[in-house]
Design a protein that fits this description.
The protein is of the alpha+beta class. It is 23% helix and 34% strand.
Length: 103
């Protein structure tokens, strides 16, 4: 069985597998869940796409890339999402990988 990594980097493109926790008291990157997902706590409710929009905004800010460069490729209506971000800042990618060392 193939192991799925929560983070994959290909040049300046990042693929993230996140577990979203909507209606949280604050916006915060959390811990690894089952070594397959990175938890992301957001304040928006999962109503009318508000949580998805906030996820894209938080990821764009974290990796210094435009929201238009980020897309949800799996899990649009789920807490578990696979997101691809293009044009990420290399220094921010390196710092994030330091926070979540995945082998």
């Amino acid at each position: 069985m193939e192991t799925v990594k929560p983070i994959e980097v290909n040049g300046n493109q990042l693929t993230l597998r996140i577990q979203v926790q909507p209606r949280s008291s604050s916006i915060k990157w959390g811990s690894l869940v089952d070594n397959q997902w990175i938890q992301l706590r957001i304040t928006s409710p999962p109503v009318d796409g508000a949580a998805n929009k906030m996820c894209l905004k938080v990821i764009g800010k974290r990796f210094k890339t435009a929201k238009s460069n980020i897309r949800i490729i799996r899990g649009e209506k789920s807490r578990y999402k696979t997101i691809v971000a293009d044009g990420c800042d290399p220094d921010r990618l390196k710092a994030f990988l330091g926070d979540y060392p995945i082998t």
